[in-house]
């Protein structure tokens, strides 16, 4: 009786699984809207790393390799929840509209040079990292594109990542490709493609516009359909094509 029951259950399990695409290791993937928008806790690995298991393991391997070339890949930011992103967004929004007296639309355009609308950050996914070289002493803002350019403190890190990141399946997201729209060039932001690609695919299959128009935070009342259409096309989708 026991065995019969087992066989029956596993047959149903196999049937259910066949509806989902499979990862290389045969595991099913399916990401909920809450997960894609940073609204639910996910299991994260590694002290000061905070990535999904596979991304964590690949990161540790990459970090080891960089060490032996004299570079200390240090994560400045990895997983970030919806609430955390809302905090970043609202702080900037209030600063630009109150202190700098900008109009709401201008403030929003300024914020989305580098920061995402809460719910749309790739940092919600546990696959993306912002990195610097921990061996370099740097004054002021570390996530500054100039600091990664020739002769600057993080240039060796940039060159090392250009050469090696893809071997570990990490890809630069916001490249300096001429004509790319959306977020500005971020030489520090990398994504673990084997998980983030299916996550983006799943996110695209949802009605992102509808999800965003239901949100309520400072400035969200100024999101028009046209603005959100452009934001999805440019800021979410105009990224390194290796990640699409
Ligand atoms: Zn980032």
Features:
single chain, 244 residues, alpha+beta, Muramoyl-pentapeptide Carboxypeptidase, domain 2, 42% helix, 7% strand, globular, disordered N terminus, binds zinc ion
What sequence of helices (H) and strands (E) makes up the elements?
Answer: HHHEHHEHEEHHH
Count of helix runs: 9
Helix share of residues? Answer: 40-55%
The CATH first-level class comes to Alpha Beta
Largest sheet: 4 strands, antiparallel
Rg over CA atoms: 20 Å
Structural class comes to alpha+beta
The largest beta-sheet arranges its strands as 1-2-4-3
Task: Give the strand content.
Answer: 5-15%
Number of separate strands: 4
Distance between the termini: 48 Å
Shape: globular
How many structural domains does the protein architecture include?
Answer: 1
* Residue windows where pLDDT falls under 50 for at least 5 positions: 1-22
Query: Could you say what the CATH architecture is?
Result: 2-Layer Sandwich
Determine the mean pLDDT.
91
Distinct bound molecules: zinc ion
* CATH level-3 fold name: Muramoyl-pentapeptide Carboxypeptidase, domain 2
